[in-house]
Write a structure and sequence with these properties.
heterodimer; A: about 260 residues; B: about 300 residues; alpha/beta; Rossmann fold; 2 domains; six-stranded mixed β-sheet; four-stranded antiparallel β-sheet; 12 strands; about 25% strand
Chain lengths: ~260, ~300
C-alpha cells in the first residue's frame, strides 16, 4: 500500500522540482541575464535549425499526407469529396501539426538536451562552469530556452505550410476527386488567422515544456551514464504526457466554446 | 579500529591540528607565519547516513603549495567542493580570504569563484569546444580582451603545459594526461589567487605524475615571483588533493592529513614527512601495521 502512495508522491515531488527549476530558467530569460551569453544563444539557435528543422518538417509533411488521404477517402465514401479541405484545415492546423511538432521536440530536442547536459554534469563540466563564475542555469538552460523561443515559431509556421502542402498534394494531385479551386474554397472557409495564432501558441507551449523538462533532467542528472539514460527516459515520459495535456487543453480553450465551423448556417 | 577512532577524538580534543592566530583583517595565521587563504572551521557534512566531514578544522596557507592527503573516500574532493561553494556544510564555516563562503549571496559567490582555478580529476574540458577554445573560454567570458591578446595568453599557457601543438584537437582526441594538462592551462588562464587540484595524479603513470608535479611547482614559483614583483596583496596559493604520498614528497610545502572527515595532522612538509606520529607515519610510509586498517 505504501508503495502505491509513494510512487505518485515521488512524481508530484518531481513535478514540483521541475516547476521550480523551470521558473528559475524563465526568470533568467525574462530578467535578461541570458543576454550576457548572446553568442551561446545564437549557437544553440543554429544547432536547432540545422539539426531539427528538416526532421520536424519531414514528419509533419507525412502527417499532412495522411490527413489528406484519410479525409479524401472519408468524404468520398459519404458523397462529399469537395469537403476534403475541412480535414486539411482542421486536422493539420489544430491537432496533428502541433502534436507532431511536440513529439519531435520531445524525441529529438528534449532527449538531446538531457543527454548533453547530463553528460556535462557527470563529467564535471557544469561544475567547471560554475567554478569559473558562470551560472550554469543561465549559460546552459536559459540560452537554450531563448534560442527555442527565437527559432521555433518560424520553424513551426513553416511546419504548418509543409502539412498543408502535403494535404493538398494528397487530395488534389494524388486522389483528384476535387479541383484545386474547390479544395481551397473549403480549406480557407474552415480556418482564419486567429486559428494559426492559437495553433502557434499550442506548439510554443509544448516547446517551452520540452526544453524546460529536458534542462531539468539533464542539469540534475546523477549516477553516471546509467543515470543519464534514466533521466532521458523520464524526461521523454513527462514530455509526451505534457504534450498531450497541452494539446487537449489548447483545443478546449481555443476551439471548445467556438469551433468556428461554418456548417448549418 | 575503535581504539583508533578514540585516539583520533582525543587528538582533536587536545588540539592536534597545529594552532593558529588571527590577523587584524580576520585572516587566520599558520605556524608558517602566513595567513590562511582558505580555512575550514568545524565543518560537518553528511550525505544521507554517510558522514563525510566530521568537524573538520583545516587551513591552507597563502603563497604555498598545500597538500590535502588522505585515503580514498575520506572526504578530500568534498573539501574542494566546499571551498568553491559547490557544496555547503551542514554546520561549521569555510572561509576564503576571511570571507564565509556558505553565507555569500549568489552574486558574491560567483565573483569569489573568479579567484579560483580548479583542475578537475579528468580535466572537465567542454566537449563541444576544441582545446584552444576551452582555454580561451574564461577570458572571453570574464574579460574585455581582444582576440589577439587572448591568443597570446592562451598560447603561453598551452606552451607551459606542453600542448601548443594540440590547440585544434577536441577533448575526446586527447589522452588522460593531456586532458589534465589542458585543464591546468584553463585553470591558470585568469591568473587566479587560488588553484585547486583534485587528484591530479589519478590515472597517470608514475613518470607523468612526476612531470605534472614538477609543472605544478614550476608554475607556482613563476606565479609567486610575478605576484611579488607586481606587489600583489594576495600570493598565489595552490592546494592539491591526493592520496599519492610520492606526489606529496615532491610537491608539497604544507601538508594536511585527512582521515574520517578530520585532520589528524597538519604542518610544513618537512615536519610532517618526518613525523613519528603513528597515524601520519603509517600513512606516509604506506605501512600495513598501524592504527589505520582496511575499514
Amino acid at each position: 500500500m505504501n508503495e502505491l502512495v509513494e510512487v505518485p508522491r515521488d512524481w508530484l515531488d518531481s513535478m514540483g522540482d521541475v516547476v521550480r527549476f523551470g521558473a528559475r530558467v524563465v526568470g533568467r530569460v525574462a530578467g535578461l541575464q541570458v543576454l550576457r551569453y548572446t553568442g551561446e544563444t545564437l549557437r544553440q539557435a543554429g544547432i536547432l535549425i540545422v539539426s531539427s528543422t528538416l526532421v520536424i518538417w519531414g514528419l509533419v509533411f507525412i502527417i499532412g499526407l495522411q490527413c489528406g488521404i484519410e479525409g479524401a477517402y472519408f468524404n468520398q465514401s459519404v458523397g462529399t469529396p469537395a469537403y476534403s479541405g475541412v480535414f486539411a484545415a482542421w486536422c493539420d492546423l489544430r491537432e496533428l501539426v502541433p502534436l507532431c511538432f511536440g513529439y519531435m521536440m520531445a524525441a529529438k530536442v528534449g532527449t538531446g538536451i538531457v543527454a548533453e547536459l547530463g553528460s556535462m554534469r557527470i563529467s564535471d563540466e557544469i561544475d567547471a562552469l560554475e567554478v569559473m563564475g558562470i551560472s550554469g542555469i543561465t549559460f546552459l538552460c536559459a540560452t537554450r530556452l531563448l534560442a527555442a523561443l527565437v527559432v521555433l515559431p518560424f520553424v513551426y509556421l513553416c511546419s504548418i505550410g509543409a502539412g498543408f502542402l502535403a494535404s493538398y498534394l494528397a487530395v488534389v494531385q494524388q486522389i483528384g476527386d476535387v479541383s484545386s479551386g474547390g479544395f481551397f474554397l473549403i480549406f480557407w472557409q474552415f480556418q482564419n488567422p486567429p486559428d494559426v495564432l492559437f495553433s502557434l501558441i499550442k506548439a510554443m507551449a509544448m516547446a517551452v515544456l520540452v526544453v524546460l523538462v529536458g534542462c531539468y533532467y539533464g542539469y540534475n542528472a546523477s549516477g553516471g551514464p546509467v543515470g543519464v539514460g534514466t533521466a532521458t527516459a523520464k524526461s521523454m515520459v513527462i514530455n509526451i504526457v505534457g504534450v498531450h495535456l497541452i494539446s487537449m487543453l489548447g483545443t478546449q480553450i481555443f476551439w471548445g466554446n467556438n469551433p468556428r465551423a461554418p456548417i448549418g448556417g | 579500529m575503535e581504539g583508533a577512532t578514540d585516539e583520533l577524538d582525543s587528538r582533536n580534543r587536545a588540539g592536534s591540528v597545529l594552532g593558529s592566530s588571527t590577523t587584524s583583517d580576520g585572516d587566520s595565521v599558520r605556524p608558517s607565519g602566513r595567513p590562511d587563504a582558505i580555512r575550514f572551521v568545524g565543518v560537518h557534512k553528511s550525505f544521507g547516513r554517510n558522514k563525510i566531514l566530521a568537524g573538520l578544522d583545516m587551513g591552507l596557507p597563502e603563497g604555498m603549495v598545500s597538500m590535502i592527503l588522505g585515503p580514498s573516500g575520506t572526504g578530500k574532493s568534498v573539501c574542494i567542493k566546499h571551498m568553491v561553494g559547490l557544496l555547503y556544510p551542514d554546520s561549521g564555516d569555510v572561509l576564503v580570504h576571511g570571507h564565509s563562503v556558505p553565507n555569500m549571496p549568489d552574486r558574491e559567490l560567483f565573483e569569489m569563484r573568479k579567484k579560483f582555478g580548479l583542475l578537475f580529476q579528468d580535466g572537465a574540458l567542454f566537449g563541444s569546444m576544441n582545446l584552444y577554445d576551452n582555454v580561451a573560454f574564461p577570458l572571453r567570458q570574464h574579460t574585455e580582451k581582444g582576440e589577439d591578446e587572448i591568443e597570446h595568453i592562451v598560447m603561453r599557457r598551452l606552451t607551459e603545459v606542453g600542448l601548443a601543438n594540440a590547440r585544434e584537437k577536441m577533448p575526446n582526441e586527447l589522452s588522460g594526461g593531456m586532458r589534465k594538462r589542458a585543464g591546468f592551462a584553463r585553470a591558470l588562464v585568469l591568473e587566479p589567487d587560488i588553484v585547486l587540484f583534485d587528484e591530479p595524479d589519478s590515472g597517470l603513470d608514475p613518470v607523468r605524475t612526476a612531470l605534472l608535479g614538477e609543472l605544478i611547482r614550476q608554475i607556482h614559483a613563476e606565479m609567486l615571483a610575478e605576484a611579488q614583483a607586481a606587489g600583489k596583496t594576495r600570493m598565489p596559493t595552490f592546494a592539491v588533493v591526493t592520496h599519492d604520498v610520492m606526489s606529496a614528497r615532491r610537491v608539497a610545502d604544507y601538508i594536511n592529513v585527512l582521515w574520517r572527515g578530520r585532520i589528524v595532522g597538519a604542518g610544513p612538509a618537512e615536519v610532517m614527512l618526518s613525523s613519528e606520529d603513528p597515524f601520519i607515519h603509517q600513512f606516509l610510509t604506506g605501512d600495513a601495521d598501524g592504527p589505520l586498517a582496511m575499514d
